[in-house]
Structure formats: C-alpha cells, structure tokens
Design brief:
This is Phosphohistidine phosphatase SixA. The chain has about 150 residues and is α/β, with parallel strands linked by helices. Helices cover about 30% and strands about 20% of the residues.
Length: about 150
C-alpha cells in the first residue's frame, strides 16, 4: 500500500476571507504543479481532498497535470483540525491514494502513521509531498519513503 499526502500550495493570507475560502496564490499554483510532477507514473487510484478552496484548487492542479480521469473525492475528514486517527479509519480499505489537506493535520498524520500517537508532527511546507508505504495500514508502522518540498 502506498499513500501520498500533499499539503496545499501557498494561499492568500489569513483575514482576507474566511479560512475555508482562501485561494491559492500564483506562487501556490506553481508549487502545486511542481509537486504534481513528482506523481507522474505513480499508480494513483483516487484523489481525496479537503473541501477548503485551496486544497480543492491544489487537487485540481494535480489532477489536470497527471491527466487523472476520476473525479476528486471531497471529504470532510481532511480539514485542518481533523483527528489523524479518524483519517486512518477512512484509509483502511484504500490503496495508492493521494490525500490533499492542510497543516496541522498533514504533519500530525505523517507522524501518526509512522510512529503512532504521541510523537511530534512532521514539518511540511506548502505543497510538501510525502510518500508513505506499508504492506497494510497499521498505525505506527508505515515507512516514509520521501518528503519533498517544491
């Protein structure tokens, strides 16, 4: 099982509009495109994304860059404050998927999947892309193959 976790690209600053409606900046769009290039040739079966606008835009950039046919699956369990344990519950029956989300969830989820509960979060910049792998989803036992930033 492979799992890719992508933090959205750089977004407008806080305060310009509600957090869920913040858009990607032009720089953020370019960051997302660079991360998408790292996914070329990977065996993706689905793209799941937070409903927040910047994550949706990031997922769409990746989808278009890859020529990925299936629609983006928008899910509430990928919002910034989601519980990594709840996310892991959703991943039990999937394989080779991309999750597009936000910090603090991204950092906490990467740490949780590798080490279990109680470890500090991974540091992930905007459009940071992590690849995890494991024969099956077991909390605390996934291997972080790479964590690349644009």
């Amino acid at each position: 099982m492979k799992l890719w976790v992508l933090r959205h690209g750089e977004a407008e600053p806080y305060g310009s509009r509600p957090d869920s409606e913040r858009e990607l900046t032009e720089h953020g769009r370019q960051e997302a495109l660079k991360s998408a290039a790292r996914l070329i040739g990977q065996p993706l079966t689905a793209i799941y994304a937070s409903p927040y606008l910047r994550a949706q835009q990031t997922a769409q950039i990746v989808r278009e860059a890859l020529g990925f046919e299936p629609e983006i699956r928008t899910v509430e369990w990928l919002t910034p404050e989601s519980d990594p344990d709840k996310v892991a519950e959703q991943l039990v029956s999937v394989s080779n998927v991309l999750l597009v989300s936000h910090n603090p969830l991204v950092g906490h989820l990467l740490s949780y999947l590798q080490h279990g509960a109680g470890y500090p979060p991974e540091k992930v910049s905007t459009a940071g892309l992590a690849e995890l792998e494991s024969p099956e989803l077991l909390i605390g036992s996934m291997t972080l193959n790479s964590l690349k930033h644009p």
